[in-house]
Amino acid sequence: MFRTAVKTALAAGAAVLVLTGCQPTKMGSAAIIGDERITTAALHRTVQEWNEQFRADPEANMRRAGALAPDQRLPMDAVSDSQLREALTRLVMIRLSDEVARAERIAVSPGQIDGLIEQAGGLERAESITLASGLPERHARDLARHEVILQTVLMRHGFGPGATRDRLEQAKQQTMRLYADAVRRLDVRINPRYGGAFDVSRMFDGSRLAVMPTVPRLSRGETGTGELPGDAG
């Protein structure tokens, strides 16, 4: 499923950061998620790293070309705001999945992550999928862990082969509620430059569940030197 999920993830994940109007860009923090901070400098480094790796990976290019509009398919030399928003969305979603797993007592073992990567065709293939989704290769295991958690939550609520259409929709709605609860618990705050709000209502195509108001803006003087989730170790 990790191998085939990238097209849906690109369509859904890119819509999670919601524009909230013309607000001045805040320096320092791209996002604050609980007691973790993603700095603008770290986000730029991540996207620059992704850009270099993506250009050198033909499979990632083919996967991304099949999921995005023609004007979004290939990265430019300069880092664009859309690339930054996409990477930030992925990083926040990974952190939200970890919080959902904690709250729902979902234990993800290294073996489960290894198994999903193996299903994708091995680590090299999983890294290409990660690049196609807008993150550098080093986040392959993070993205796989997110997929394991998301699949587990969906299946717990009835998503699976043989489920009725209503049951599938109920499972998606309940999953979005759990992620919305995680957003509130962690008090997720997004720099207005990247949207200003994090909305889980578009996790799945066709969903119309409105769960998140506009979040508070970051303070103008916030700088910080925090690293991205997954950078440590």
Automatic annotation (TrEMBL):
Domain of life: Bacteria
Protein name (database record): Lipoprotein
PROSITE patterns: PROKAR_LIPOPROTEIN
